[in-house]
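Please, structure for the following, as tokens.
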Amino acid sequence: MQGLKRVSLSIQTGELITLIGANGAGKTTVLRTISGLQRPSNGTVEFLGQSIASLRPEEIVARGISHVPEGRRVFPGLTVLENLQIGAAPWYNGTGSLESELTKVYELFPRLKERSQQLAWSLSGGEQQMLAIGRALMARPKLLLLDEPSLGLSPVLVEQVFQTLKLINELGVTILIVEQNAFMALEIADRGYVIENGRIVLSEAAEALRNNPRVKTAYLGG
């Protein structure tokens, strides 16, 4: 896994930011460092004005950061509903109802409601990605981190997932997407960063990155 070298990036409340780069450039390491799965050897990670670099992953989730890892990693032996209920663990104390949060997820992903009693392993790849995102949303995040949400999906499903992410952002959730499909990511993002060999080498508005010759050649197919 690529080490980071003086990476500096910022995300403002309400933004949708994408981080693009080649395989092994350090994209996943950035997300894992923010969410507490890796500890920075130096520097700091701040969220809402407070350092979170020393917090455990579950404490970071409770602060309002949800991480959808590459590969979805749903719980295959649990139902769709049970996976979603687990997502609410950071705030749910066992009393009251989860219905309002489930309703929000089902409105975004009607397919999950239809399959609420199915085991997660029986879902298609696209449905599992919907479930992974829905489970993250059940934690009521202020910041949603997504690692390669389009990986392994058909072009039609990629379009659906990205449009849903745009809607989630419009509903008030700040989003950071790590994505190899740079074209789709820059289509919905406000700003973007380009990372190479563990370093941020470009930071511009998404439209400027789409039109940048270097980015076009390296990441947008010319």
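The first strand starts at residue 16 and ends at 20. The CA atoms of residues 194 and 201 lie 6 Å apart.
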